[in-house]
Design goal:
Multidrug efflux transporter AcrB transmembrane fold; about 85% helix; about 0% strand
Length: about 100
């Protein structure tokens, strides 16, 4: 997401707050869906492992828990990164103006 945001800002180089927010929304529209699809498929694939009780579950479940938690954090970052990036760019814009 951050790489795509960097590319979007290099391409557009917005000069005001509205331009920055428009660039972030454009980048979000392009990258949020693929990131969510990847995260969702991983989370759905881990559900049977997390709920298993058969042979080998005592080894697989503890290995699946950190993966599940990491992907849950990834969902949060998908939405937090654009907001923080926008705030950073708006702060830079504010500093550069006299």
């Amino acid at each position: 997401m951050a790489t795509y945001l960097d590319d979007q800002f290099k391409e557009d180089s917005p000069k005001d707050r509205a331009g920055i927010r428009a660039a972030v929304v454009t980048a979000g529209q392009k990258r949020v869906r693929p990131a969510l699809m990847t995260t969702a498929t991983t989370l759905i694939a881990l559900l049977p492992v997390l709920t298993s009780t058969g042979r080998g579950a005592d080894i697989l479940v503890p290995m699946a828990i950190p993966s599940f938690g990491g992907m849950t954090v990834a969902i949060i970052t998908i939405f937090v990164v654009p907001v923080l990036y926008s705030a950073r760019m708006e702060r830079r814009l504010k500093r550069s103006k006299p």
